[in-house]
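pls read this stuff:
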Amino acid sequence: MNITVHFEKEQTTKDILLTGTSVNDLLEQLKINPETVLVVRNKEVITEDEILSENDNLQILSVISGG
């Protein structure tokens, strides 16, 4: 399935041919640790087990932690 992903950290947008169906599949395909990002669809944060749909438009936001 085709989805569009905007990477906030790099300020880039890419069309991705996703081989799986979930957010977790997407993060694995992109080799991104799920603990370091938030995935947003339609201005809502979605979980790793959320099922994605054809032509979804997602944002991947970096999580910043500090002490």
Remarks:
- The first helix runs from residue 23 to 29.
- The chain has one domain: 2-62.
- Residues 40 and 59 are 5 Å apart (CA to CA).
- The first strand starts at residue 2 and ends at 7.
